[in-house]
Amino acid sequence: MNEQIINKIKILGGNTDAVHADKNFVENWQSIRFDNYLYGKDWDVYGIDEFYSIHQKLYKENNEKFYRDLTEYYFSLHDCTYGQYFFKDWMFTPFKPGSEDYEELDGLVEEDDVRKTVKGKEMDFVCIFYSYGYPDHYFVCAKDPDQSNPAVYGTDHEVYFNEIENEGSLEEFLDRFLTKEEFREVVKEYLQGKLGE
Questions:
Q1: SS3 state at 5
Q2: How many degrees, rounded to 5, is the angle at CA 36 between CA 62 and CA 165?
Q3: At 76, is the pLDDT very low, low, confident or very high (cuts 50, 70, 90)?
């Protein structure tokens, strides 16, 4: 895992203290921790009207605290569905004989068809994110030839691995997420426009 990816993960709120150069990608990914959700740059301000409605007195009295509280809430592990992405680190090995997932895709998807899109010696995957959008699962091939910046693949539970697309490198993929500062600016712009400020 390269330094740019490690830095991006830190900026997005991830803890990379256990990442080491002597580990492979999966070992490093499974050692990362997030105490927050992530939001894509195409996020559609889900739940902001409700948050404002509940906290409008604070908005008027202490605007800075309103935005600090809002950002802390959205970047926590809350139970609301606001279009966020969830960090994941579980393995999916549907083509590995003897594995828990072996034959899960039997009769639905052939390994050779997956190989047409996915680069790697073995078709073992680590799920890196889940979302409410389409596609809703994002994977990295555990044996991607570039362990420092592997390709990310997207697929949806409706067409699991029957339709799989290359979403770009991990470094590119992480660019689609808002930092806390960017998130705050999106919300600020939305509320100021809505309230005519």
A1: helix
A2: 125
A3: very high
**pLDDT tens per residue across span 99-121:** 999 999 999 999 999 999 999 99
What span, in angstroms and rounded, lies between the C-alpha atoms of 57 and 182?
A: 24
Contact 2, 146 (CB under 8 A): no
Residues 6 or more apart from 130 whose CB is under 8 A from it?
85, 86, 88, 136, 137, 138
Q: Helix 180-194 crosses helix 63-74 at what angle (to 10 degrees)?
A: 120
* Range 86-107 burial, b when 16+ CB lie within 10 A, else e: ebbeebbbbbbeeeeeeeebee
pLDDT value of position 159:
87
Burial of 53: CB neighbours in 10 Å, binned 0-12, 13-18, 19+: exposed
| Type of residue numbered 180 | K
Identity at 136, one-letter amino acid code: D
Task: Please tell me whether the overall predicted TM-score, pTM, comes out greater than 0.90 for this model.
Answer: yes
The per-residue pLDDT for range 44-73, each reduced to its tens digit, is 999 999 999 999 999 999 999 999 999 999
**Is cis: bond before 97, omega within 30 of 0?**
no
